[in-house]
Design a protein that fits this description.
CATH topology of the largest domain: Rossmann fold
Strand content: 15-25%
CATH architecture of the largest domain: 3-Layer(aba) Sandwich
Number of strands: 12
Bound molecules: NADP nicotinamide-adenine-dinucleotide phosphate
Structural class: alpha/beta
Helix content: 40-55%
CATH superfamily of the largest domain: NAD(P)-binding Rossmann-like Domain
CATH class of the largest domain: Alpha Beta
Radius of gyration: 20 Å
Largest sheet: 7 strands, parallel
Length: 296
Amino acid sequence: MSEKLMVTGAAGKLGRSVVTLLLDEFGIAPADIVAGTRDPGKLADLAARGVTTRAVDFSKPDTLVPAFTGIDRLLIVSTDAIGSRLAGQQAAVAAAKAAGVKGIVYTSAPNPHGANHPLFFAGDHAGTETAIFDSGLPYRILRNHWYHENFFMSLPAVVKQGTWYTSDKLGTKVTYVAHDDCARAAAAALTRPWAGDKTIYDITSDETFTTEKVASLASGILGKPISVVRLMPEVLASNLKAAGVPDFVITLMLSMDATNSAGLLAKTSGAVQELTGRKPRSLAAFFEANRTAFIA
Ligand SMILES: NC(=O)c1ccc[n+]([C@@H]2O[C@H](COP(=O)([O-])OP(=O)(O)OC[C@H]3O[C@@H](n4cnc5c(N)ncnc54)[C@H](OP(=O)(O)O)[C@@H]3O)[C@@H](O)[C@H]2O)c1
């Protein structure tokens, strides 16, 4: 009998991509897929394809054991409630165990453990990973590096002003990854045979970048000059505040710069190719494919 696979957060970008890949690329029968979301009404298209949809809301812990009953392998997509999602994600892990789930895949962040972590929300991921480790269940943790797609938020302004302000340390190296490669790796992690796995994968592309190297790459592809200006974190924060950038975004930007400077995303891994059999998309290919979005 085939295993039943559930994807939580299936109305989000990553969750929806994983379900679509399971159907269209991985050849999983719709009857073996359960798409979990806070609002199943948003998944009518998947239901029309034969996928079962179920209400899954980590903020309603009492509902989670029934939601996970009958599921063999569970992909827990980390939620977007940054900084306040740990309790819900821990409840999801506990409910998975109680419901008889046989293996968990979780979308984590790079190197999330350790005291005084520079990434302010690393504890969400470290705590969820620890709950998974402590559950005794087989797992595949996917530590997704920064999405290429994050550049949709920052790069248009950089291109417009011709200057990239950063508070990272000179020479800091970072490895990014395509959202689509994260989704494909998650679909593969859910479906490839399990042998009691307890595996952690860093999900990265094949190349590391300094900020100057990203700026030079983007500049060449987009045909726009970009110079990098390095500022002390408190100066960058104050300039961003004066420019009207919301406090949460400032905190996020500085925290990511500090995490990058600590070298926590500095390494590539072969995990995307190992899991999916495909080379990860390069940052250059991402910029090429999205030229108009960056120079609009
Ligand atoms: N590596 C990176 O650079 C990076 C960047 C951004 C985000 N992330 C992380 O990656 C995750 C997936 O990315 P994405 O692009 O799919 O983001 P997204 O489209 O913003 O999706 C947010 C996700 O959070 C889920 N969610 C929110 N509240 C929930 C709750 N109470 N219970 C269960 N699920 C809940 C949503 O599920 P439903 O709407 O279906 O309920 C949805 O799947 C994000 O949630 C975040 O943790 C990583």
